[in-house]
Amino acid sequence: MGAIPLILFLYLYILNMTTFSFLKRNAAIDLLRALTMFTMIFVNDFWKIHDVPHWLEHATYGEDFMGLADIVFPCFIFVMGMSIPFAIEHRYTQKASDSSTLLHILSRSFALLIMGVFITNSEARLSNDVFYSIGVYWLLMVAAFILIWNNYLPKSNKKLLLILKGLGWAILIFLAITFRSPDEHVFAAHWGILGSIGWTYLVCSLIYLFSRTRLKMLIYIWIGFLLLCMLISPMNESFGEIAMLNFPQPNFFHSFLEEVLHIGNGALPAFGMGGIVLSLLTIKYEEVPMRKKIVWILGLLITLIIAGTIARHFWILSKISATPTWIFYVSAIAIGVYTLLSTLVKAGKAHWLNIIGPAGTATLTVYLMPYVFYAFADITKIILPDIITHGFMGILNCLCFSLVVIGVTYLLGLCKIKLKI
Fold first, then answer.
1. How far is it, in rounded angstroms, from Cα 48 to Cα 53?
2. CB-based contacts of 315: which residues, under 8 Å, 6+ apart?
3. Phi–psi pair at 390, nearest 5 degrees
4. Which of 83, 84, 181, 299 sits at a 20 to 30 Å CA gap from 360?
5. What is the per-residue pLDDT across 33-81, written as a single tens digit (0 to 9) for each?
6. Is the previous residue joined to 250 through a cis bond, with omega within 30 degrees of 0?
7. Chain center to CA of 234
């Protein structure tokens, strides 16, 4: 617990400059996003194979463990947070107003929520009474998303764009009305991964919009989310598996956090705010000698690891429970990987990662492409040979699938098909 003031002191100690510059694109952020998306596609494809090593999978509920699959989603939230200052400050360099920036944030959040709810409802598959298959649902869903949110050329015919976007919305309305799950549930507001990203993006972006580059304030907010997570996350068996703030269930406090603010126990916003803080620190100290930066970064990583180790005496390491221990360890991993990628970029040795580059610049398109492949497999009833669905061959299968998805995304980009919200 004492590691929290140590982290705060470390951050505040290095705050001695006041100028920020967001004019240059940060290639390391794009690479971190690409690597995270590549890994996300990889682990999300495990459902079709067998005998996957446990260290690659998600931990089960109540298990004090973190597999590779438990690291990917929070890393994406972290890198999303890193992108927020660049995106918002870029808009201001283009003379965008506060109101237009706010509307932009709201529209992006809305798009993520809409995509999330359609994807999450489909995870239950469809009732046999629905007159089309889940494969058709996925194809229509992805087609609608592209029609609505494709990055159309600036000179595109406005009337044609209205028709295409209207067609996309009509398809989504049709899917929502006709949807029935196998247990006969109708279409409902289940947010899923994209929805969680959307809510977290909204919260973190609004915080940044109203605080801008006030780094000290942002650090305090990050600490606040960490403390919230500590207070309301159930502790381990030694402490009776109850939270410090152990309110009877249900209660107004938890309902307000979950259903109104959509921040849960604060873990996801903590990742997002951590990314924002790291971006601002990166900009502030861009000209600092690398040797000095490495000392600071090592100090921060060691502090986070120590914090995670101390926290593990109180909370298990669990993504499902979104424990403070999970936040500390994953934050250390995200910062460490980003630092490595940033070093490679500055040394001109990151070219070998260009093969997954489209996953960092066409992220939404990459995320949706697996559903197209799964749709064709469902419609054509193609079944993979058993030999490539077990053990090492199964893992190699998933790795190749990730590369193919990114390759298809690259080809779609050449055809001017790329989602942008």
1. 14
2. 230, 233, 234, 235, 236, 321, 323, 324, 325
3. -130, 145
4. 299
5. 999 999 999 999 999 999 999 999 999 999 999 999 999 999 999 999 9
6. yes
7. 24
